[in-house]
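U., I forgot to send this yesterday:
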Amino acid sequence: MNIADHATRYKINSKDHQYALGVLLGKQTGRDIEIISSFDVCYDVVDNSWILNRDYLDSRLEQVSQIPASGASWSVSTSSVSDVVGWYALGSSPAPRHIGMHTQMSQVNESAVLLMFDHTNDKELSMKIYESIVDLSNNQSRTVFVEIQYTVKTTESERIGIDHAAGASVSGFSAVSDVVSSQQSAIAMLNGRAQVICDYIREVKEGKRKSNPAIMRAISSLVSSLPLAEQHKDNFDTQCSQEMVEALMIASLATLTKGILTHDEIAAKSNVIYSHSVTNKKIRSLDVLSAFSRNLPI
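Result:
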């Protein structure tokens, strides 16, 4: 989802002729690689080649490593999520210029993989993953990319979000909206019937209504089936509290990340303004010194 978001932003702001490149985070165990998250990286273009900004990459990795592990729904710990397992780029297949960037990424992880995401394909998930091998031919070595197989695993919350977004983008509403609406109607109906029972019992107690033995037996039979829910009340409260804490933590992390990005933007702009101010002061000082030297008698 991060790569798709980066591809969308690249497609909208493609007038700057920059390519969308990023780093893949996850865990590697032997030949098995689990890609969990990603973020975009900064780079410079020199002689039609990509030069990775290592300072920016190290700064982002330091920020990722400081995210607490509690509240994460991943199958691995947060410390392993900060490991760089590869990088991604937009396109259908690798080009010769990708080899240079892959060599730089190999300095971070020597077994890094390359994920190519074709953002121009709107019909299906066009994504390929490559690993690099050294090919020896004619007594010369060269790096080539070989496509590898992969499987996509998603959590329940991600599937719900993707289904909702996909359905809403086509018809304005999704299957998730229909399910939620039907559940809301069912809960409202159940609440209304429970309220009728409560009103009946209260009126019988207050003497406003005569007790009907058949109705009271039906209510007693219904209530006798509820202790099962009462037995699991503690477990339900624990799970509900845990879900609420995880949701609040994710919201707090999103707010914190947004604040850090805003702070970085302000700091960068402040540095630019300060550098221009210092440069102008130096230029004015040189002009004054030059004018003063011209007025001195020989």
